[in-house]
Amino acid sequence: MQTIQLLILIIFILAIFYMVKFLGGKKKVTVTDPVPLQLKSILQEQVPFYQQLNKNKKTEFEERAAHFLTQVKITGVKTVVEDLDKVLVAASAIIPIFNFPGWQYPNLNEVLLYPDSFDHEFEQQGEDRNILGMVGSGALNHVMILSQFELRQAFLNETGKNNTAIHEFVHLVDKTDGEIDGIPESLLHKQYIKPWLQLMQEKIKEIIDDQSDINPYGATNEAEFFAVVSEYFFERPELLKDKHPELYELLLKIFHPAPASS
Ligand SMILES: [Zn+2]
Fold first, then answer.
1. Who surrounds ion ligand 1 at CB < 5 A?
2. Structurally, how many domains does the chain consist of?
3. Same domain, 75 and 140
4. pLDDT > 90? residue 118
5. CA distances from 45 to 38, 144, 218 (A)
6. How many whole angstroms from 117 Cα to the centroid of ligand 1?
7. pLDDT tens, residue by residue, 28-67
């Protein structure tokens, strides 16, 4: 009898042990792709936007970039995704929305990295234009495609006004109100929408008339204009302020909203 009781007790203890282990395991967040250990040092070396933040803001940036990487999968297509790429994608995602606490990208699940530009595999305006980045639609909804080369290049080039990854994330921000139309209604206070539309028209005309230093691709339509000048705003803020003060002021209102007054 005593042996049987002992056996039952042992089984009982083992059962509890496994239950605790199992439940304990369930509590942990399963991260298939771990956040790069080098996140902080890569940001410090490669991302000027991060470099100019104060200590607290840097910590916030690191946390939000790390969180982004637990939410969005980064997949290499015919290329190997390195930690550097993951951190640069996350940084490009956080930069445009850094002044919006808690902002996440509900419309994005995955970023596909291609080694360089891509064209024929994705229909894009039916031309031979080399595509460096795009926000997917249709079957590729919730997917963003970026050129790995361009992603790295944009952060290496300190005097450029272009950054394809930031450009694509700005399209996603623009898309959160339902349409990619150059009017980020979720960020821009209603009173500024009319002035913003007017200014876009003026500035697009300057590009068409060859009177502008803004990337001519911005004259494609208002959505592209918004994405192109946002790149300029985040890459060369001082130059933009100098050359296009009105544009700079309105972009400041979009991306650095004044704290809500009660
Ligand atoms: Zn675009």
1. 224, 227
2. 2
3. yes
4. no
5. 11, 25, 30
6. 14
7. 344 457 889 999 999 999 999 999 999 999 999 999 999 9
Report d(CA 59, CA 54) in Å as an integer: 9
Q: Which amino acid is at 232?
A: Y
**Domain range for 191:** 177-257
Ligand 1 centroid – CA 164 distance (Å): 8
Chosen domain end from 102, 128, 158: 158
170 lies in some domain: no
Q: What is the Å distance from ligand 1's center to 172 Cα? A: 10
8 Å CB contact between 124 and 134? yes
pLDDT at position 21: 52
> Would the pTM of this model clear 0.90, i.e. be above it?
no
How far is ligand 1, taken at its centre, from the CA of residue 107, in Å?
Answer: 16
Q: Give me the mean pLDDT over the 105-127 stretch.
A: 71
Sign of the dihedral through C-alpha 205, 209, 214, 218: positive
